[in-house]
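Protein Record: Sequence and Backbone Structure Tokens
======================================================
Tokens: labelled as protein backbone structure tokens, with as many entries as the chain has residues.
Question of interest: how does this chain fold, as expressed in backbone structure tokens?

___
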Amino acid sequence: MASNMADRDIFGKDGLAVRGSGTWAEDKLYYLERYLKIFSVGMKNKWGGRLYYVDLFAGPGRCLIRETQKEIDGSPLVALVGFDFAKYFFFEMDQGCFEALGARAKKCAPDKWEKTKMIPGDCNDTIEQASLPYEGLGLAFIDPTGISQISFEAIRRLTTGRQIDLIINFPEGMGIRMNLHQYTQIDANALDRFMGSARWKERYQQSLTSFDQVCAEIAKEYLANLGSLGYLAVDADWIPVKTDQNRLLYYLLFASKNPRGNDFWRKIKRIGPRGQRELF
């Protein structure tokens, strides 16, 4: 659950900060929870007590759905309360959200507090401080509120030398399409930092003529960059997250260094949040 400075001004029933969100947050967390389940069960025999969870934008631990005023657990509490991993790593840069998450984690899962490592500050700067294990198998949930909050270099440092699956918020709707013209005008920009490269811009200047073409090229380039880190990720596996008005916000992108992880992802995406089955 991504952090937001405005969370300090919204409080839950327990008096602690919550993050305001739309109904789509429930869809996103539905897929996260389904993958956590198949990941924890399917990998248990091979990895035993060496499975761990990483949340780079953990937030305060609770969401308030604006349309319904319903409070739900955010990604860190979904993982902490619902699943038993060897270790949990929660990164959060906003102090109010950091404190709220710590209080909730202690209350909701006191037996797991010793296995929970809270890392304050910007995850782009603090990944090394977390001392993530090189042994074992991890799952990292990377869900920033904005494209400028995560760099590809941070993902490189997170994954180098580690077996760790990735679920990434790829912000094609909110972060890319809405600001594409700006990104084409500035040499060094947030999109290039997020991507880890700017080859798409050269194609744009030479031949790309539409937003759809540019976005397709950006997605292709991002997949290739993940591939350079040893990851398998294909655009057919992406899950669109949309508003109630059916407007695309972002995709949930999955990547793994082991094809079995991709098989797991394809299984969990077959049934959507409202019971709809994927058509093949």
About this structure: The chain has one domain: 5-268. The mean pLDDT is 91. Residues 24-42 form the longest helix (19 residues).
